[in-house]
Amino acid sequence: MEKKPKDATPELEIQEKISAEYCDGKVLAEATDASRDFYEKSRYGEPFQKKFQYSLVEALYLLERGKIQLLQAKKELSFDQLLKIAQKIEANFFVRYAAFKDMRNRGYIVKTALKFGADFRVYDRGVKPGDDHAKWIMYPVSESSMLTWYEFSAKNRVAHSTRKKLLIAIVDEEGDCTYYSISWTRP
Q1: Are residues 112 and 126 in the same domain?
Q2: Above 50 in pLDDT, residue 154?
């Protein structure tokens, strides 16, 4: 996968910031022309009760890019503040965020994959969720962590049963990612 220049993805061309609110682990934005347009062009967030709900990794990425204004109890949250909150909620958050950010910077649409028992679904470039299926199930893993063969096999079985390739994102301490795509084969 070649690296795309930063800010080369079309969703980052949107001029108007989306205003959203953080409350109890959720990031919600009103359904405005800007938030609907942003969703249509880039698939950030999910429609949720006449609003758009963003995952914490999406919200942090958009905050870092200056595309969202995030409030908590009427006070604006910074990137560092949201990162600190997210890391309290989820111990592996930095690793997940690094892989999400890298794939988004490369032009892929990345969505959560909780219903598959995985971290993320990754859509091939140019494919939007709903138009076609994800190509990969991605599991971000810290380079200092270890997986047993049972854990590895379980991840591969999830990918195989959902008819996707397994993509392991190895994240180093600087947040750089190396990817390994794994698939079943019959001899």
Answers
A1: yes
A2: yes
